[in-house]
Amino acid sequence: MKRNVAKASIGTKAVWAGEEESPPGSSTQVPIVQSVTFGYENLDEWRDVALGHRVGHIYSRNTNPTVSAFEGKVRGLEGAEASTSFASGMAAVTNTVFALLKSGDRVVTIKDTYGGTNQFFREFLPKIGIEVRMCDTTNPDQMEEEIGKGCRLVYLETPTNPTLKVVDISRVAKAAHDSGAVVVTDNTFATPVNQLPLKLGSDMVLHSASKFLGGHADALGGVVCGPREMVKQVFHYREITGAALDPFAAYLLVRGLKTLQLRVERQNANAMKIAEYLEEHPGVAEVHYPGLGSHPQHDVARRQMHGGYGGVLSFVLKGGYRAVRRFLPRLALAHRAANLGAVETTVGPPSTTSHVEVSARNRAAMGIPEALVRYSAGIEDADDLLSDLKRALSV
Ligand SMILES: *Cc1c(COP(=O)(O)O)cnc(C)c1O
Fold this sequence. Notes:
Elements: H1 10-16, H2 43-50, H3 65-78, E1 82-86, H4 89-100, E2 106-110, H5 115-127, E3 131-135, H6 140-148, E4 153-157, H7 169-178, E5 182-186, H8 191-194, E6 204-208, E7 222-226, H9 228-241, H10 247-257, H11 260-279, E8 284-288, H12 298-304, E9 312-317, H13 320-327, E10 335-336, E11 346-348, H14 360-365, E12 372-376, H15 382-393
Parallel strand pairs: 2-3, 2-4, 4-5, 5-6, 10-11
Antiparallel strand pairs: 1-7, 6-7, 8-9, 9-12, 11-12
Helix pairs in contact: 1-3, 3-10, 4-9, 6-7
Bound molecules: pyridoxal-5'-phosphate.
Pyridoxal-5'-phosphate is lined by residues 88-90, 93, 114, 116-117, 157, 161, 186, 188-189, 208, 210-211, 220, 222.
């Protein structure tokens, strides 16, 4: 039986999207098709599949059944027409941007993109004659003005990493469309449980699947979703340049995605409680979390995010980096690692995590203090996480 979950709610889509048809051999689970290539006895059939006149697979750099199931699941969750996947989130970012742009084009983006994305915009696009204008993330007037000067692409990320700034997607998308530009939004932090950029006017949405989508910090991957023709353009670039997702990683991501809603709802709740606790703590100078009423873009976040405000927050300790060095090793219920979105709580300073690619000088220019701690709440019990924080902060 072919299931149709297009109109189902997010929890149902997480379980069933991408698995509308039963896999061959009566298995109930998406099989790991660990095969580079696919063979055909009938040459006419082979040619028809190769030309796209018939459904099927030819070579796993192009398409693979396990990888297709992953793409279908995320496509369903984001409510998109089409999707394609990549070996990592950065492959999703770079392949999408390279596929959409050519020399002489102009890009408008924000200063607070993920470290790797930021470095890509600073280092690699100017090298091939693409002008990049990085705007103040929380200044939509400046973004509108820069977009009005003409650009081919507007690249957004919200909430941002690691200071959880929020960009008004619909407002910026409107300005972009008035100027004939396309909008790409990195939805890694919010996940489709909390935010649907395509509904807010973004043309494409992309993810590092290595974070919340997979959720178990055991597989790298990336994905982009959007209108069929645009995704086709990005897919074509990726099938030639080769940053394809591995079938085993795709299997782990499919498995992780089934519990996406359960995990993210818990992480939303944990992060909210922790942010409220830290805001009152005398050892903490600042807390960044879009769910707090004190967050400068809380109203925008409330309008464009629906399920919650995500599992990641960050805070600045009084006492500078020395305080961070004393505090972080005292946390028992946390990995100190360059990751986020996993079932385990994961913490780290941006100088070794999100912005390791960025120099200390550029981090300072980006408003990322060395005493900042990024905290990605896992699915542990909130009370245990709060006691752990309380103990670690008591020095
Ligand atoms: C981690 C991350 C990326 C890069 O993803 P990788 O899978 O590590 O390549 C891109 N954007 C955001 C917001 C991220 O957190």
